[in-house]
Structures are given as structure tokens and as C-alpha cells.
Here is the input.
Amino acid sequence: MTCFTSNALEFNLPQDKSRLVGELTYYTAKKGDYFQKLAEDFNVGFLALMEANPGVDPLRPEPGTELLIPTQMILPYGKHEGIVINLSELRLYFFDTKKQKVHVFPVGIGRIGHMTPTLIDKITEKRKNPNWFPTADHREEYLEKHGKEMPKMIPAGPDNPLGDYAMRIGTSAYLIHGTNQRFGIGMRASAGCIRMHPEDIEWLFKKSPSGTRVKIINTPIKMTYIEPDTRIIEIHSPLTDNEGNIPSLLPISNGVQRFIGNNPEDLEILEELILDPNGLPVEIRSE
Here is the structure.
């Protein structure tokens, strides 16, 4: 079941061994639509919307065009607990084990040169109306761009890029925080922190006590089985590294090879998806 709320996509956790949740949403573009607005309306990522609809002008989709909204996904492999962020898909998963639900949010992550690290840690500090203390790198970039010094502290308020809520991950400088600019969610736009819509971080802040587990992964290929013995694969474009290089998904890992098998038709589907990822769950024929 998919439920659209003001904060997130909400799914019941699968009760079987499958990790597939949600259903694809189809939307017919209207005059005046643009991807940034649609991404906010459906609370999905901007780049995810582009990936799912190749060839469509994100600024002015032709009215009448049927768009795919990426509201179906494979849950990340591993323990479904606390907060899991998959950088490759620019999504944050919050697992509510008591209610057996998962809430999914689009997030902004580190841009090239400021890549968000993978890690396993926990929330150690929570701040409402946080002040922002720019790093030395921030201040140096600002000086080069504007020719003047950046303040060492930006107080809470409309000029603060952290927004109204911030949560620190471990003892690092990395935060999960809000924003004073809505553009950039679902994109690589931050200096390494995890950026969320204001209403999304407010929700997550209230649901995540200090000590909440945080796992950040970079997994462009996700796989699962659904009954009866049907294989589903979801492939996202690999992230450009800090040097601007695009990693190759080829050759495929042993795990993916075992999952796909040796059927030529299945291997052809896999190759097409790797060369042109759409970020959507795709069925590999039933055995």
C-alpha cells in the first residue's frame, strides 16, 4: 500500500522475503507542469523523476505526456532499522519497526568534490533553530566567489542554509538538516550533509531520538525476489566521484551474476539497464 502524506511516501514493510514496496504512479502532464513542482507534489527526487522519464523536458513537459513517478522501489539490503540513506538513489529510509512501516524521503547529498561518505553510526546531537558555523572550505570558497569574508557564524533564521532542524551523525561534521532553499532536494547540491525538505526534516527530527542508528550506503544496484520466483532488479546511475569520474557498473559483481543467471535474454536486459539506468524496479523473467 502506498500512502501520500505531507511528509513522505509511507509503505507497509513486506511480510514475506520480498523487499519490493509501493506501486508505480502514472501522471499525465498538464500545461504549466515542471519537474521541480511534480517532484515536490509527489515527494520524490528531482533526478529520480528525470531518470524515470528520459527524453522529457524537465522544465516544460509536453501536455498530455504520460510520466512515470518513481513510487515503487526495492528496500536496501540489510537491517531495516533506524535511518538508511542510499546515496545512489538520493533517498532516505526511516524504518518504524513497531508499526512495521517504512517512510521514504528524497534528499540532497554532497556535490562533486564534497561527496557524502558511507558510514554506520548514530544520531548524537539534535538542534532546533540551529546556528551554522561554516567550515574553512566554505569560507574559502565564499571569499573566492564574492571577494569578501564569510561570517564565522550564521544565526538561525531565513538566511541559514541548515533550515529549522539539524541532527548530527556521530562525531562527524555531517548533519541531516533542513534547508532555506527548496531547490536541490533529490540532487547533488550540498557540501556533504544530507539535506531535506523543511516539512520532512521536521517529521524525521520528531521521530528520531538521539541514538537512532544511521547507515549511509552507496548501492546503485538493488535486487529482490517476489513470489513465485520472480526476480526484480533496480539500477540507478552510479555517482560521479570527487574527481569527476563516473564509476562503471561493469563488470557485474558475482552476486548480480548469480541473481541474473546465464539466460541470454536476461543478460541482455541487465546490460541495457546498466547502460541506461532508469532507477525503476524491472522484472527479470519468471523461472
Q: What stands out?
A: The two ends are 26 Å apart (CA to CA). The mean pLDDT is 92. The first helix runs from residue 35 to 42. Residues 93 and 104 are 5 Å apart (CA to CA).
